[in-house]
Design a protein that fits this description.
By secondary structure, this protein is an alpha/beta fold. The protein has one domain: TIM Barrel. The chain is 48% helix and 12% strand. Helix 1 runs parallel beside helix 7 and helix 7 runs parallel beside helix 8. The longest helix has 28 residues. The chain starts with 6 loop residues before the first helix and ends in an 8-residue tail after the last helix.
Length: 295
């Protein structure tokens, strides 16, 4: 189905990286960036941060530093009072942002400022469905497109119950991104593959986000199972904590998602710490397939 631009989405497209006279749906910008990484024979790096942590200006600077240091996709997390899959590091960052008064309108304004820079890669949000429902799916989708974002990961929305969101996102060309878990049945993976755009978010482990000493067993098998249902890029997150783990995942997945480690580094070492860690992650991922895994 061909998507026609709404005024909001067209405005986003005009300010998007690489925009041309012809309108290009936001989801296609995301997919093009992931396809570029695949064509280069490497995995993509997806980096996460909490909007408004430790404050708005520092968060914005941190996302810009991630972009400059090699991130292929930026994942922005609006603060939310009841995070379902977030571990203690991100929970503390979220609470700090909420305590400073950060709300969804502030997040969207920050995203718009971020995406106004043509050097910034595609931006997606990771948020819970209550934030979408409270605003209304049509309004939220339009606001997201107007801010220049390309998609949204909604971890608590199963694709079988996402009809209204899928329709609203489709009208403005936003990518609805769904999760695949180690416990997902083949039927669920098939539904995720049919419903989503952009990429499929494969959970490296069950449970909440956080730093882990080693990768969970079975994640490579999960990526293989997802690929039996879709040729969409499969990006692995939740449990990738350092460059060594990122390189391991990059050898078999299309993308590596890192969140908790970057949020912790921002709290400890500020924006330059985030820039340094992003550069280390990017270097590890970019060379992963050219080097043999350690014995």
């Amino acid at each position: 189905m061909t998507t026609s631009p709404t005024p909001a989405a067209a405005a986003a497209a005009r300010s998007a990286p690489g925009s041309a006279a012809a309108w290009r749906p936001p989801a296609e910008r995301l997919e093009a960036r992931l396809a570029e990484a695949r064509q280069q024979g490497r995995a993509a790096l997806v980096t996460y941060g909490v909007a408004g942590y430790p404050d708005r200006d520092t968060a914005l600077a941190a996302f810009r530093a991630m972009a400059e240091a090699g991130a292929d996709v930026l994942e922005v997390g609006p603060p939310y009072s009841d995070p379902l899959i977030d571990g203690p590091v991100i929970q503390r960052a979220v609470q700090a942002a909420l305590d400073r008064g950060s709300r969804l309108d502030d997040v969207l304004a920050m995203v718009a400022e971020l995406t106004a820079d043509p050097a910034v890669p595609p931006v997606v949000l990771l948020l819970y469905y209550n934030l979408i429902a409270h605003r209304g799916v049509e309004r939220f989708a339009g606001d997201l497109a107007a801010a220049g974002a390309c998609g949204a990961v909604v971890p608590d929305l199963p694709p079988e119950e996402a009809g209204d969101w899928l329709a609203a996102a489709g009208r403005v060309g936003i990518a609805p991104i769904f999760l695949a878990a180690p416990t997902s049945t083949d039927a669920r993976l098939e539904t995720v593959a049919r419903a989503g755009r952009g990429f499929i978010y494969a959970q490296a482990t069950l449970g909440v986000t956080g730093l882990r000493a080693s990768l969970a067993a079975g994640v490579e098998d999960l990526v293989g199972r997802v690929r039996s249902h879709s040729d969409r890029p499969v990006c692995v997150g939740i449990g990738v904590s350092n460059p060594e783990q990122a390189a391991t995942v990059a050898r078999f997945a299309d993308g590596v998602i890192v969140g908790t480690a970057l949020v912790r580094r921002l709290g400890q070492d500020g924006v330059e710490g985030v820039r340094a860690l992003t550069a280390e992650l990017a270097a590890a991922i970019h060379t992963a397939r050219a080097t043999s895994p350690p014995p």
